[in-house]
Amino acid sequence: MATRPASNPQVSIIVPTYNESQNIISILKSIRANIPKGVWAETIVVDDDSPDGTGRLVDDYVEGLRRLAEDTVSVIHRRARQGGLASAILRGIQSAKAETIVVMDSDFSHPPQVIPRLLEALRQYQCDLVVASRYVRGGGTRNWTLKRRMISKGAAIIAKLGLRVKIKDPMSGFFAFKRNIINGLAFDALGYKLLLEMLVKANSNIKVHEIPYTFENRRLGTSKLDTSLYETVTEYLRAVWRLYRSKRLKETAPKERRSVRFLSKAARFFTVGASGFGVNYLVSMLFASGLADFWYVQANAFGIIASLSTNFVLNKIWTFEDRDFGLKRTLSQYGRFAAFSSLGAAVQLGAVYWLVDTHGVSYPLALLAAIAVAAFSNFVLNKKLTFRESLWD
Question: Which listed CATH number (3.90.550.10, 3.40.50.720, 3.40.50.2300, 3.30.870.10) goes with 11-227?
Answer without folding.
Answer: 3.90.550.10
